[in-house]
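Long-time lurker. I teach an intro course on protein structure, and each term I like to show students one example going from raw sequence to a predicted 3D structure in token notation. This year I'd like something fresh instead of my usual example. Would anyone be willing to generate the tokens for the chain below so I can use it in lecture? Attribution to the forum is fine with me.
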Amino acid sequence: MVDPPVVSIVIPNFNGRTVLPDCLDSLEKQTYRSFETIVVDNGSSDPSVPYLQNRPDVRLLALARNLGFAGGCNTGIRESRGRFIALLNNDAQAAPDWLERLLAAAEDHPAADSFASLILRRNEGEIIDSAGDVYTIAGSAKKRGERQPRSSISSRRRTVFGASACAGFYRRRYFDIAGYLDEHFFCYFEDVDLCFRAVLYGLTCIFVPDAVVYHRVSATRGEKSPFVTYHNSRNLEWVYLKNMPGRLMLKYLLPTAALRLMALAYWQKRGQGRTYLRAKWDAYRALGSVWTKRKRIQSLRVRTPSQVDRLLEKHWIRAHLQGRT
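-- Reply from a regular --
Happy to contribute to a lecture. Here you go:
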């Protein structure tokens, strides 16, 4: 009987035929070899499935319809066999020692539950896309170090709010405790929602600066498309409403309101003000089901509001200008 792999790499895919070869070829070059590669195809209409069927290094899970990034990841996680689970975007390429560095960090930090890779913007030199996720007191999320040079980030490991699911690494117990990605999000901010839940449940994430991935940012949808604006703006509210402790909602009410007004002005200038407002309307229109989730999450919270507060970014205006809103 063959022993199960130590790591399961889960890659959700939708119409990614043009980017998949670079991603999968980078995994074939990994210095650490005890892993399986699971690609979950979300009902692609391009030649992704025939291509994947001809890759003996891939375990293909072909879905009949598009379940979004969250649904694709969840399907792969449930079918995985490894003690560790890595989530990887189909438009990302891993450095050859990516898994080796993550496993070394996991061995050095046995109490940590997840690990954030250093994600660099592909074809932009040594410019950071993400060095872990940040969540602000105003109810927004950003990528730590986004668009800054790699040299601006310390080469030492450190605790961060959470890992971007573009290249996140998790012990299996992480999902046993924090649960899975919320499939109602479909795509965008579902990883931040999961990270926030993990924070509330007392889990810890370590940033690993020498575990490097190169990301072709928003190759699938485009960074500023109406689709991205809508899902980012709607899902941001769901992250906040589900996870922010009530005491912190009251404490930071003014910055939260100010951020929404700033964001509206930003999208209005770019001709997407109506998309932004529709997203917010749809977010609050689902308040009943969101509040049901909130009650369960808050009932299981082990960190106090004060402990959560210490993990939030206080420079919310700077985060708004630099990050995802």
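Some talking points for your students: The chain has 13 helices and twelve strands. The first strand starts at residue 7 and ends at 13.
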